[in-house]
Amino acid sequence: MIRRTFLAALGLALFPAWALAHGPTRQKITLTAEVAAAPDEVWAAIGDFQDMSWHPAVHATTGENGNDIDATRVLTLGEEGGPTISEVLYKYSADAMSYSYRITDVKVEVLPVTNYSSHLTVKPRDDGGSLIEWRGAFYRGYPNNDPPEELNDQAAIAAVTAVYQAGLDALVARFGAAGS
Description:
Layout: H1 2-21, E1 27-35, H2 39-46, E2 58-64, E3 72-77, E4 84-93, E5 98-105, E6 113-124, E7 130-140, H3 153-175
Antiparallel strand pairs: 1-7, 2-3, 3-4, 4-5, 5-6, 6-7
């Protein structure tokens, strides 16, 4: 009986260490914007996986295979010769006005994430206009315990949020806010 109690107490004492030993948890964010334009008009601007010129951070987009599954694109950020992000398309539906992609190559100094996937969709609003939803799931840029501040969960969430918000703000500026 004493041995069983001892083992149970030892297990409980070690439980916090086990919880910390598993590494980072997957982070998820969803941002939305409501615009005055009809869904078809918004989709015409953002629905081509090979063209991300609507995002203010993207200087150029090059890619292969259009909107086919496994199509690839490389985003050049900022200016010619700027940092790049390589991505692959894994879901696409023009009818549902949505696509999903994942990053295949990015330096954590550019975007402090690993194992990143994202989903972009346009939906009609009940009272006209469109709802644009951008969701992402990712791990922080440092996969081990005790990450440096610039590669921790908060840095990853802040960076992805900033990317999404800049893109959505540009679309609101382009199409007008819903209800205005």
